[in-house]
Specification:
The protein is α/β, with parallel strands linked by helices and about 425 residues long. It has one domain: Alkaline Phosphatase, subunit A, CATH 3.40.720. Helix content is about 35%, strand content about 15%. InterPro entries: Alkaline_phosphatase_core_sf, DUF1501, TAT_signal. This is DUF1501 domain-containing protein.
Length: about 425
Amino acid sequence: MDNLTRRRFLALSGVTAAGALAVGATQVNWSDLMAAAVDNPLPSDQSVLVVITLYGGNDGLNTVVPAGDPAYQKARPDLAYEQNEVLDLGDGLGLNPGMKGLKGLWDDKRLAIVRGVGYPEPDRSHFRSMAIWQTASPKSPVPTGWLGRWLDATGADPLRAVSVEPTLPPLLAGETTAAASLPLRGLALPKGALGTAYAALGKPSPGEGHWQARAAKAVQDLQDATKVLGNAVRTGHEKEEDEDEQRTQGASAGGTSQLGAQLELIAGLIEAGVPTRAYSASLGGFDTHADERGTQQRLLTELDAAVTPFVQRLRKTDRGKNAVVLVYSEFGRRVHANGSDGTDHGTAGPVFVVGDKVSGGFFGEQPSLTDLSNGDLKVTTDFRDVYATVLRDVLGTEPAKILPDHKTTIDGLLRV
């Protein structure tokens, strides 16, 4: 988010003292994280939560598509997908054709789709709705994010949660503790002959003195860190060259691109044993009021191309196998298309939960397309049920400490 929308977001969320923490959060660098991995490595049996926010309000009906439902085809005559275009999931539903990798994870029982997720008395404002999702307080604004309260309840170390987004999202701001922030910058070393010569400086030599050995180790540590962080980010010049003019479509509600780079960085940190239990990443651009089909499918393809290799990579290590990915957006879209080949702000939508610890399949009831509330889908699953489940089964925390007065979870979603 830019500064203006961020301030507005904080004001509408009620994140006041916590918002100040978020703006001035602990910014760390690779050396802080690598030192923590050495001094206090993440136990290989501890689970890690990776939260991916899709900013803008992703259209759930064109993500998990009821292509065989006549009501869907009638509501979206030019926007609907046909049955032969989607990736069949059963139950009359199919994934958007841009999500072939996630379809493979579904087939492997490592993708769960929670249907009809939302909150009571929906608000169609991006900022208020996202504030509700990030604070987990649908009835009244509160000054902390739900993972920020988890930080408050379980210790004061900001490295237990890390955001790789440009700014720390309010979901990671607690009353007394805010997560650490590691913005993507990249880390590159020389290549070619110079790079070979530089690498040689990191090799220990017999009989070298104390300070020579320290210098060599510092060079080797830098090379090791580059393996973790270096390939994750392209340079700004490369990004400008690759910038697609479509990137600006649907981007009014904040968020960022480069999700693949964010997840590549997170994967490296998990594999290195950094003692972080929760990570935050994001993808923006889902505010698809016009020309939705091409824009959303491009974004969902980007989501797929980031999440699929991330999950496949992590399952090769003991620490990685315990990672769980949660993908959500602040609301779905209206059932009926508008007059600009797009959709307007709606209510309920699907939430994805991905990983080796996930019991794949459908959870929650599919909302009806004929029994609507003022033209919108009716919520069938409270979003706090998802949060309570990952708090309990991923982060090992009693949900009631974080989500007061909320007692329900989604049993069977995760294997513990």
